[in-house]
Amino acid sequence: MSKNKMIIMLIGIVTLLLAACGNQSGSRNPASLTLNEGDNPATSKQASYKKLFQRSLFLGDSITEGLSYHDVLNEENVLAGAGKTAQFALEDVEELVKRKPEYIFIQLGSDDILWPTDNPKEYSLSYYAQLIDEIAGKLPDAAITLLSVTPVTAEAESSEPRYLNIGEYNEGVKELAAEKQVGFFDLSPIVADHTELYDTDGIHFQAEYYPILLDFLKDKLGYGINTK
């Protein structure tokens, strides 16, 4: 075989190989490698919670803040922060009203029971009552629901004995809800069923707790959207 024929044959083989590789690459749609929000069950469920509670606002302390911190809900649906008490929450009423929520969930008390006063429960609930009155007065059509203070672990109670008063405080919140004719949900059952979701301090919760909380509220309120 002449040198020229051999070169022509090699060029032909290389051309065929390149064409084959090109066809193989072309058979895969690049778009199929892109993960859309709906293709990821976790992301899709997270988006469902944000949609479901887009007309809601959660007011509370650092435990409530976990909803936005862990990106379970959007920040505009959460008005919370570390150290928040019923007294300090009064400062948030103006901002809360600006957001015009239709459903308001309030979870306060975890910091209130630690307040350095002779009767933290009585002191806190007096401000809690004022908070409800102010919100209801400015947003009369909004549905207000009080959430109980979540229990802490035995270790956390041992480190801070004032947490032993959580049960008594929650009874006060329940009575206040009845007095003000607003909703009240006791969260202790879902915490008892998921003790593995406590954070290391035995007070706060890991990210996985918050979808469970929202499922609980969804079922209680009969929201008509499936997040599963």
From TrEMBL:
<dbReference type="InterPro" id="IPR036514">
    <property type="entry name" value="SGNH_hydro_sf"/>
</dbReference>
<dbReference type="Pfam" id="PF13472">
    <property type="entry name" value="Lipase_GDSL_2"/>
</dbReference>
<feature type="domain" description="SGNH hydrolase-type esterase">
    <location>
        <begin position="58"/>
        <end position="210"/>
    </location>
</feature>
<dbReference type="InterPro" id="IPR013830">
    <property type="entry name" value="SGNH_hydro"/>
</dbReference>
<dbReference type="InterPro" id="IPR051532">
    <property type="entry name" value="Ester_Hydrolysis_Enzymes"/>
</dbReference>
<protein>
    <submittedName>
        <fullName>Lipase</fullName>
    </submittedName>
</protein>
